[in-house]
Amino acid sequence: MCNKPRGKCFKCSHKSHAPLTQAVVDAHLRGGLIVGIYPLNTDETCHFLAIDFDKQVWQQDISVIRNTCARFDIPIAVERSQSGNGCHAWFFFKHRIRATVARKFGTALLTHAMAQRHEISFSSYDRLFPNQDTMPRGGYGNLIALPFQKSARSRDNSVFIDENFTPWPDQWAFLSRITPLDETELNGWVSKLIRGQDLGELKGEPEEHATPWKKTQQTLTAKDFPQTVEIVRSAMLYMSKKGVSQRALDAIKRCAAFKNPKFYKAQAMRQSTFGIPRVISCVDDHETHMALPRGAEKDLCQLLEQHGARIKWTDHTQQGHDINVEFNGTLKPEQQQAVDALLSHDNGVLAAATAFGKTVVGAGLIAARKVNTLVLVHRQQLVSQWQERLGQFLVINETLPEQTSKRKRNLERNIIGHLAAGKDRLSSIVDVALMQSLNRSGTIRECVKNYGMIIVDECHHVPAITFEQILKEADAKIIYGLTATPDRPDGHHPIIFFYCGPVRFNVDPKAQAEKRSFDHCLIPRFTSFRTGPDKGDQALSLQEVYDRLASDEVRNQLIADDVIRCFEKGRTCLVLSGRRRHVAQLTKRLEKKTQNVFCLFGGMGDKDTARIMAEIRAVPSGNPFILVSTGSYIGEGFDEPRLDTLFLAMPISWKGTLQQYAGRLHRPHDNKKEVQVYDYVDLHVKMLESMYGKRLRGYAAIGYKSKVENFPDAPTNIIFTKNNFLPVYLNDLENARSSVMIVSPFMTQKRVAQMMAYFEPLIQKEVRITIITRPIDPFETEKKALLTPLFSMIRAAGIHLILKPSIHQKFAVIDDHITWYGSINLLSFGYSEESIMRLQSGSIAYELTSSFSGIPHDS
Prior knowledge:
The chain is of the alpha/beta class. The chain is built from 28 helices and 40 strands. This is Helicase.
């Protein structure tokens, strides 16, 4: 009957919870059971807050918490855990208190305590019960074992203890003396414990978001620091803790720590936050020194100098050895600017779109610095690409050093060496190394310490733990990062800058697109895909939706037909999916229709990959071909300038991924006049349609214009934003002749009043106007009061009003031909980053309006 672990309890139709009875409590107290409690109620309140402390230093940590509570007269009960290797700090409430308030109090208490003892880890923020503000969908929150369990109690564990870690002689009498708290008291203590945010001041927030009323007021003085602070610059910045106060050390460790957006996103989506830290720290705390990443140097120095501390530097970075190298070529003006910007510093990031020539910039840096260099990459295919490009753009007048190992003497070696796929061909002059070959289960190869300069390609992968571990050991004097997308969907991009330094040169992708010799066109293709009648898309996970999408015959045939049509017009096509099975299905369909179809994905093996790449290169110039692949394999580093048409066979949402995928088309090639991206819009599935709205913003950011069909004379339109679409949209409305349909899930009084001035002349011309929006019922009382008169005004004007629950689409269709489609609610508008496109197509208009046919008016 039980389907675990294949299924989850909350999805099980057979689940049956055992009741909590007097017998169960009795068994817990007498040793027959161990009972735990989920503190978070279904209404997201709680009766208590508990904080867990473990590891070897739990006694020191809880002592500071006790002292803080004593200072502020906060009632606390400390229970030694059942294992005896930790404790729980309990705070009991008079009545149910909102979890947000209780957790803010616990967070503030920890933040205040960290200033008294900097060794209290940021992970303590994750040891609160309850561990999130909201009830995870289908879950219960986190569980804490109840005190007084018999078998643990016999070892003086699972009982409440005093300041000397001795059990209170009468446990019930002790508990009876603990005063329960109310919400007003908690809020009052929060304001006394901290100034500013409950997590304290962290590095993660961009400076423009750190508003004055949110920033923690600095309470440090010169007395918190010695006159001279010693810092050793090596792989990390090792700052001596001698003479530095606890609160100053706490402030310093926050220079390389930031809020984890992944936690807050999961919480907002009512997902479990288990295993997701609230704060991410890149600091290592040693007994005598605190180690910060080198990218935190500016903030560390600023903090010390503001309080009058002089810094005594000791440089233990690896200087490397000089090499005789010259640049073989001419940098473009913008590439030279990038090189110059990076050369002004010993670290930094170049953020430039695909086809900018980041590899060439890397070669220029090596030629300018003239020091032995290691290039770090994360993919096997990038190793050979870097070797080839560096060989093309560098003239290295060096002799390979003698090999001391007999086994390696007969191996073929190159001045531009490599370490990858189990092969060590390092030259120690200029080398390219695969990240996975440098890090074996956390053990970093010593060779990473032999270079004076390290260049990290695709450095947005640095936050991956295996990559971060390498850079923690890399003591090269100079470290640069190259990337097209310095932002990350998980929000962990501060880690990039901690290890590679800040962005020193940024190339705007939209400006870069304008400089290219070809146009950039988005061709949206609206699909009829639905998840099926048996389960609504709300009940399916994204991966389950992807499974159904990949198996949808009609959708796959639409993609295949589009690819064949483009191929027959002489276009070289790249088809990307996120699933190998989907790649195989599409390849099979295409092979039935034409030749020159190739398939590539990770895990094929070196021989098969090399064979297919050779076959692609063998296709004569001017002859088109079709390449079907997974986005994870082709999305980064793949270099084939002939590609001019991309088909996104599976939806994505992150702008950085979109930029990487579209970048495969942006390499210059003879006779490339226009690159096209076919994007499949699954408008009937809410989560997929929402993903398209995010992609649309991404297309606008990289200079694409929308186009209905693949015809030479088809009109193109810019992808509009909230700030520039309105004049064009209103002009289309004013010129409507027969019908206007507006689908807007949300509306505001101000926006509807504005639009009525444009609707009234249309009604007088007998133009049929239909508005489709959500009914009043799901909204809160305050919103209902605003919507009721709006609906009445719309009906009174003679506009056809259709109320449809749970609609998510946002579009307008004018005269069954002009479509405005995107992420903007046309009767409320919204965030400035939202986008919308204008399309002239009767077929697209029909596809959108037909999904709302048959719905009764004023329902």
